[in-house]
Amino acid sequence: MNKTLVGIDIAKAHFDLYDSLTHKHLRFDNNTSGIKKCTRYLVPLKPTLIVLESTGGYELDLVLSLQETKLPVAVENPRRVRDFGRASGRLAKTDRIDAVLLSEYAAALNPLPQPVKSPQSRKMKALVARRHQLLQMRTAELNRRDHAKDKDIDQSIKTIIAVFEKEIDRIEQQLRTLIEVTPDYRKKLQILTSVPGIAETTATMLLVELPELGQLNRRQIAALVGVAPINRDSGTFRGKRMTGGGRRLVRTRLYMPTVVACHHNPQISAFYKRLVEKGKTKMTALVAAMRKMITIINTMIAKNQSWCLQ
Questions:
Q1: Which residues, including other chains, have CB under 8 Å from residue 287's CB and lie 6 or more apart?
Q2: Are 121 and 207 in contact (CB under 8 A)?
Q3: How many CB atoms lie within 10 A of CB 176?
Q4: Number of Cβ atoms within 10 Å of the Cβ of 200
């Protein structure tokens, strides 16, 4: 059966489309008008799959428009697409070439379409992202204050820090309100915060960045986060097992909660200490503890159970 696969290369001002049925290359403006024209073109085409790269936000309006018309859209990690291109011998890079490459990537790897996100989910993701931005800016100002010798400069930095802290409080209040009025989020947050080491901020991050919790098995969720060990064997050679790939943001923000859990969560602490006593490095044991914690959380969400029932 012939499949119609569409690749779309996104830029700030425009996006390039290639479809495998007509072999057409089309360019649309990346604005409301251009997105409407693109959607009208694709609907009668009935593509089997549309693949785009994640571009830090330039793709969001287009993805939402396509999903609202029930078109299957997969948003892929640019690194995976780039590696695929290199493996295919595609070294040249233009917007048109990238659109073709994305359609070939769809044919070869058949990525799963993203589920349609609810308005609440999109709102929460935006709020969490904004909170993270504000925290980074506040940290930058705090670091500058360490070296501010002039009183006027120090006062200026203090004023800006106060503004950031006020805005962070406002964003956090919006997050709490959104969770409170969304029963599914409220219940999942209660489950996540029952885990020793997982505070409300981390629980909210998991709700936003890992919506697959409870829907995958333990191996799949570990691989999705990037904490599943990867074999590196060839012939008689047995390489060191490594972790990687997956959602780096989730791993990064789970690091400190895992450190806390290794000290204050009896189940995770015992597991961590047992690995260290067996000769594992502390970092290896910490990653393993993160993997164990995320797989337990995955089971908790699937079974709608709090930590006390583990």
A1: 227, 243
A2: no
A3: 13
A4: 14
pLDDT at 146 over 90: no
Task: State the pLDDT confidence band at 90, using cuts at 50, 70 and 90.
Answer: confident
Count CB neighbours of 267 within 10 A. Answer: 16
The per-residue DSSP string of 245-289 comes to: -S-HHHHHHHHHHHHHHHHH-HHHHHHHHHHHHTT--HHHHHHHH
245's tokens: 């790939």
Query: ∠ CA 175-255-263 to the nearest 5 degrees?
Result: 105
Encoded amino acid at 109, one letter: L
> With the CA atoms of 41, 43, 44 and 46 taken in that order, what torsion angle do they form, in degrees rounded to the nearest 10?
120
The residue behind tokens 């409170």 is 180
Task: Using DSSP, state whether 55 is helix, strand or coil.
Answer: coil
The encoded tokens of residue 293 equal 């914690």
Q: From residue 22, how far is each of 7, 48, 72, 293 by CA, in Å?
A: 13, 14, 18, 48
Q: 38: Cβ–Cβ under 8 A, 6 or more apart, which residues?
A: 8, 15, 17, 26, 28, 62, 65
Task: State yes or no: pLDDT of 86 exceeds 70.
Answer: yes
pLDDT confidence bin for 209, thresholds 50/70/90: confident
| CB-CB contact of 88 with 72 (8 Å) | no
Residue entry with tokens 């406002």: 170
CA dist 229 → 84, 254, 284 (Å): 22, 17, 10
